[in-house]
């Protein structure tokens, strides 16, 4: 259980922050940039959720919780050393990726096949979901870059990849088949 009695600690005033394993890094480190961008994704999901109802609102709430799991995962380096931790380490697991895939398939099944690329937009809900998608893609790029130099849980990267697909299909659902389509060379 997390208890926050005091919001400011002054421990980051020098430009460093603590990772979840207790080590300290610069606030501009690749790891902090990656989980910070996951936090941005979560904020955009909060905006999109303002337009959601029913199962879509519930799915977005699940995703927001997963994004906190993902932030916790990314804030702890060295997944190969998890067994040495004095407590269970929170990592994204394949079942979370599998759930996204099942939800994508269910949302996509009734949609007409695409015949063109979609322009981000449509109605307010669809536009917010496209924003979620693009920020998720940025988080994924940062996670892949981080993985090239430091340990990153493979399921975390897979989750981000699948999540951007989820937002794309959810935006199509939100737009009710009235997606704005790209017309190549339309304004020449």
3D structure, described in words:
The chain contains five helices and two strands; from the N terminus they run ββααααα. It starts with 15 loop residues before the first strand and ends in a 14-residue tail after the last helix. The protein has one domain (24-174): Hypothetical Protein Ta1238, Chain: A. Strand 1 and strand 2 (24-26) form a beta hairpin. The protein is elongated and about 55 Å long. The mean pLDDT is 91. With 188 residues, the chain is mainly alpha-helical. The chain has a two-stranded antiparallel ribbon. Helix 1 (30-49) packs antiparallel against helix 2, helix 1 (30-49) packs antiparallel against helix 4 (124-149) and helix 3 runs parallel beside helix 5. The chain has helices at residues 30-49, 54-74, 94-108, 124-149, 154-174; strands at 16-18, 24-26.
């Amino acid at each position: 259980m997390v208890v926050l009695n005091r919001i400011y600690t002054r421990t980051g005033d020098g430009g460093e922050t603590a990772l979840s394993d207790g080590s300290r890094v610069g606030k501009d480190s690749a790891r902090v940039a990656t989980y910070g961008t996951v936090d941005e994704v979560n904020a955009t999901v909060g905006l999109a959720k303002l337009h959601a109802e029913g199962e879509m609102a519930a799915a977005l709430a699940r995703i927001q919780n997963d994004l906190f799991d993902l932030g916790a995962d990314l804030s702890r380096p060295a997944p190969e050393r998890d067994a040495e931790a004095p407590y269970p380490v929170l990592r994204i697991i394949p079942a979370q990726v599998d759930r996204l895939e099942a939800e994508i398939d269910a949302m996509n099944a009734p949609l007409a096949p695409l015949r063109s690329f979609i322009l981000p937009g449509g109605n307010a809900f669809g536009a917010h979901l496209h924003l979620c998608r693009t920020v998720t893609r940025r988080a994924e790029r940062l996670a892949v870059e981080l993985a090239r130099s430091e340990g990153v849980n493979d399921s975390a990267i897979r989750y981000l990849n699948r999540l951007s697909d989820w937002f794309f299909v959810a935006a199509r659902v939100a737009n009710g088949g009235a997606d704005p389509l790209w017309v190549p060379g339309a304004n020449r």
